DNA sequence: CCAATTAATTCAATTATTGAATAAACCAGC
DNA sequence: GCTGGTTTATTCAATAATTGAATTAATTGG
């Protein structure tokens, strides 16, 4: 389904204009012309089209600069809505969000600690979306698309989940099932990439073209943004940072190898180590079985040295791994996000220190290391929603094969 | 200097046509239309332009398929010539090559084992190019561009060499000096990227969009090809694979850290280890000081266990490092090239084995591992020439900022 | 030598961009 | 309150590229 070459130029320029408006926030037509390289005439035409479609609106008048005051254009927050759905070990999270990433409604569906079948998850996702739509008082036809984030590698084009460790799924096309049930365009990717999409659209990656997003979730992942696009590799499974082996005789990971980043720094691993330490009598939790990540964060707050050591080690491993990322990708920025940022300095300081210690000077600066401060569970779903936005507004330039 | 948007479409389509012709070799106008998505009318127009400019020619008639036989178009091998210049520890290598990577002339200038100044290297490069042109009986105006490869990180846009370990240079603009002297468009990049350009244009990366080129030279480097383009990162210094630390308490590397890939597997390191082993009496070379890489390859052939062990270790470290590359980039292919491939199986088998052992199954296949068989020193310069070709025929698509 | 078939070109129509001219909007100062 | 100067935005004819349809060219088999 290649776009007719004839329409390409318009599509490219439309995308260019949208992109500038999105990163600038508020911008006049004259500035758009200057920034895009297009003539004022073209900008007038394209913006008229976008306004007619409801994607952008004239928001306010700009500052007086000696003559007619510019009308500042901005995204129409209500120009489109998307649904974000994220699957994690704990729950299914659903949000409805607008073009400015405001969350209009959100619903979550807790999951039990057992293996679910594909049919069960499909059913739960669909009903949770429906509930969320009901609560947000939304009709289906106001939704432009649905983004789905899952904790495992995905072939994004076909929509097939290659492998889902939590439930032992292999080669499952969850996207098509959901799409068939909802009747809306659906996109699926692993959660690291959806979080990267969110950072690129709304977060710390806005306006930056080359950056990395390290995601500290149950596993450890990496979203790679290159030239403004999520890089997925040949088979769509790039970014398995969590399975870079750092200590060859380290703990066994669910990937089958020993000592990879995730085997130290994934939430699952942190909890495992904390439980092992408790079982060995190094500390006394109320109930070993009831240890959760949040309870460990509480232990950190109360200065439990054993737990602090576990997090320090995880941070150090992460930093050592990240030094490879710096050398290989030379990113403008590394953004660290995910549930585990809640651990705060006990994880992040050793991360930073190990990164600095293990990165040769010649590999460039590592100043731009950003830790996302606040993590709430709805960010997962927001990431998934961003994926839908990104796919919906993708510039056709990205489809051109180039040289 | 952004291209006027008006001319963009033509430029894109021209580049698209050239690209298809280059990868296909011989192709009819009808096939070009089908492949490019353009109409036959446009293809006629664009190819007429390209033929007039001498870039492509009608090479022969195609097979009879029931009607008029197609005229097959191909690159005009004499449509353009470029010069490639490579700087290594040993010598300056210069070639003149055509659009089919045939080497028309080549000249090399041995270097002494000492620090050269920028002026000296500039002078030597210019005179070597001039000698090569004389020998090839080439006039300056037949050369479209000059590519320069150097063994160190380069800011390609500005042409500034960030750092050249061999001679202790920092922030030197060699490109502008050469350009001023030769009066031809010059491009500069580190040798790993020029070798990647060569693989992309003429070698094992032809027609592949996402692959990695591991370069085993005095140091260890990495050329990263993403979406058909060399990826250079935010500051232009991506791909420092050689300085990924594998064994934190390993040998000291010239990068200042210990135990990085290069500290085991760079040619310099291999020679260092062989000399140390000789000094420790583990083997008896004729003259310790005279040990070169080629003499070590000879030792491998005569089954010197000590030397074999050194190469095995290097291969294993490379494989362990490469497993990270597979997990992070999910490349279609990994191409291994550079002087050290001359070491053959003693280096490459352990490489392959360690890669297999250290790559989790979930990170995808690693079947497509290609070792460039024959390495000759002129390949360095050919890589540099490919860089010039790549820059000269770059599609304007690559300049568009996208989303 | 003609019919059938495929390749390539020509040509008028369409469409997007553009520079220049025009219109609109706005403030300052008289 | 109105005029002048200035900046923003739109209009409009000209330009250039693509396209589908029609035409021409080339080729072989019967």
Automatic annotation (TrEMBL), chains A, B:
It comes from the Bacteria. One of its GO terms (molecular function) is kinase activity. The keyword tRNA processing does not apply. InterPro entries: ATPase_NBD (IPR043129), ROK (IPR000600), ROK_cs (IPR049874), WH-like_DNA-bd_sf (IPR036388), WH_DNA-bd_sf (IPR036390). Keywords: Kinase, Transferase. The keyword Transmembrane does not apply. Gene3D superfamilies: 3.30.420.40, Winged helix-like DNA-binding domain superfamily/Winged helix DNA-binding domain (1.10.10.10). Belongs to the ROK (NagC/XylR) family. This is Sugar kinase of the NBD/HSP70 family, may contain an N-terminal HTH domain. It comes from Desulfopila aestuarii DSM 18488. The lineage of its organism: Bacteria, Pseudomonadati, Thermodesulfobacteriota, Desulfobulbia, Desulfobulbales.
């Amino acid at each position: 389904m290649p776009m007719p070459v004839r329409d390409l130029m318009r599509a490219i320029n439309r995308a260019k204009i949208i992109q500038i408006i999105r990163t600038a926030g508020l911008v006049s037509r004259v500035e758009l012309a200057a920034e895009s390289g297009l003539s004022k005439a073209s900008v007038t035409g394209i913006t008229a089209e976008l306004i007619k479609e409801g994607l952008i609106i004239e928001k306010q008048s700009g500052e007086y600069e000696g003559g007619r005051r510019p009308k500042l254009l901005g995204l129409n927050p209500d120009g489109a809505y998307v649904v974000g759905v994220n699957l994690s070990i704990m729950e299914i999270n659903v949000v409805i969000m607008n073009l400015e990433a405001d969350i209009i409604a959100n619903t979550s569906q807790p999951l039990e600690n057992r293996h679910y079948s594909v049919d069960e998850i499909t059913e739960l996702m669909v009903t949770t979306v429906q509930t969320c739509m009901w609560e947000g008082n939304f009709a289906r036809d106001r939704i432009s698309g649905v983004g789905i984030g899952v904790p495992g590698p995905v072939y994004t084009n076909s929509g097939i989940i290659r492998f889902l460790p939590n439930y032992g799924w292999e080669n499952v096309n969850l996207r098509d099932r959901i799409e068939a049930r909802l009747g809306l365009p659906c996109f699926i990717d692993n959660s690291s990439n959806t979080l990267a999409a969110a950072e690129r659209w709304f977060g710390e990656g806005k306006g930056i073209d080359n950056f990395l997003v390290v995601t500290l979730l149950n596993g450890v992942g990496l979203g790679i943004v290159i030239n403004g696009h999520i890089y997925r590799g040949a088979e769509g499974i790039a970014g398995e940072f969590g399975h870079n082996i750092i200590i060859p005789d380290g703990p066994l990971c669910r990937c089958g190898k020993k000592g990879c980043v995730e085997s130290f720094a994934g939430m699952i691993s942190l909890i495992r180590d904390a439980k092992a330490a408790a079982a060995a009598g190094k500390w006394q939790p109320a109930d070993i079985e009831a240890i959760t990540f949040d309870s460990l964060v509480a232990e950190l707050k109360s200065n439990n040295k054993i737990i602090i050591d576990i997090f320090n080690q995880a941070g150090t491993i992460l930093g050592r791994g990240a030094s490879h990322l710096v050398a290989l990708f030379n990113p403008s920025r590394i953004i660290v996000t995910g549930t585990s940022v809640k651990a705060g300095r006990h994880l992040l300081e050793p991360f930073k220190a190990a990164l600095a210690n293990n990165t040769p000077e010649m590999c460039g600066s590592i100043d731009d290391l950003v830790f996302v401060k606040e993590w709430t569970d709805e960010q997962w779903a927001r990431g998934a929603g961003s994926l839908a936005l990104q796919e919906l507004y993708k510039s056709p330039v990205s489809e051109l094969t180039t040289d």
